[in-house]
Amino acid sequence: MRDYEAAAKEIEAMGAEMIEAARKCEAMTAEVHLAIAYMHETAAAYREDAKRIFKRIEGLLVLDRACSPNLRGPRAQDRKQPDRLRYFGDLVAFESPGGRRSLPLTA
Question: What pTM did the predictor assign?
Fold first, then answer.
């Protein structure tokens, strides 16, 4: 009978250990959900920044195309050299036959 009682106590102790392991697992799962939510927020912020920068560059290209013929003169339109963009941190530089102009990327 003593052997059965000892085995029952060991089984109860294992049950307590399993309950504690389940609590730790639940806590870890909650932390993982928080981390995933943070990653989604960060990705959304990066997407918004990329859209903002793309729209800014697009607007600057439209402005450059509209202003360049006036700045370069009538013969400059006959040249078929493409404009080039170069990025320097938060600054974009347009290199064209009419010269180099720099504009900030931030709005």
Answer: 0.47
